[in-house]
Amino acid sequence: MFVRPPLLKEGDTVAALSLSSGFVTEVLHRYEAGRRQARAELGWNIIPAPNALRGPEYLYRNPQARADDLHWALENPDIHGLLSMIGGDDSVRLLPLLNLETIRRHPKVFLGFSDSTVTLMQFLRAGVMAYHGPALLTDLAEFGGMHPFAVQGIRQATMSAAAFHFQQAPEWTQAHQEWQQPDLQEVKRPFERSDGWTWLQGDVPAQGHLMGGCLEVLDMLNGTPGWPEPVLWQGALLCLETSEDVPPPAQVGYWLRNFAAQGLLQSAAGLVLARPRGYTPDMVAELYGWVKKVLWEAGREAMPVLANVDFGHISPQLTLPLGAVGRLDRGAGVFEVVGG
């Protein structure tokens, strides 16, 4: 159903794109750390797209320059992959400027999360797999070096075979550390032991292509011409996460009710929820209650639901190949990709 882009390999040149915020120019030491660490751990040669380092004010006022960078990276034969610099909040402004035919004719790995959800969905609309995972300024520029779990996740999704098991992170963090202090770049953040995945419901294994992203961004995209057509949602494993804005559990429930009103929950094969950033234990319990409530309302009380998975706005995070066929099996404790 979706074209799998050519796998990346060590020595490849990957373009870093500022498709949303141009914040990178305020933390150039972190940008260089990300490039250096990516070369050491992944073997990638990361270069900036022509407009990627022109600053937040210029990029805010010139969405065409951002779209031009995407098209340049796709059409340039010397560029093998595309990497989001960082998220933001206005990639939706690029929708009238993006050429799906260019994406379709030049399938390449595009890796990003958060506001990059807009662009990830456009790759899927063009029939090309896209990769929900670390950005250059986040996990690739992790304080004190890339986390081995993030490295493994990127490698297995973008550089290895089409089938693999997702692993549970042994540790995780949401600890804040100031990006704009260069002297902290080599100081590792504190991590805590992971409590693992949580299976909320559903005992029958389910299989479908991976779809989804950041719920707040999907909400901005909903109702625009960039919203994926209904057929793209049918039979999907929905992979959904929330941002550092920490939306209340009830708000997540309302978004899921919107999905139900569109028939997306009724046609989905299963649901995968990320570890929610900034949630207290009580908020997590309330969130899970809302999820089960809305699925009951939609007649999907038997849908398999896996929660507390390591992707999205926490570290380290997995890389999800959106468009690839995934499988959930509660009995075997498995979340896996079975093919492209």
From TrEMBL:
It comes from the Bacteria. Belongs to the peptidase S66 family. Keywords: Hydrolase. Residues 207-326 form the LD-carboxypeptidase C-terminal domain. This is LD-carboxypeptidase. Transmembrane segments: none annotated. The keyword Hydrolase applies. Residues 14-133 form the LD-carboxypeptidase N-terminal domain. One of its GO terms (molecular function) is hydrolase activity. It holds the Pfam family Peptidase_S66C. It comes from Deinococcus ruber.
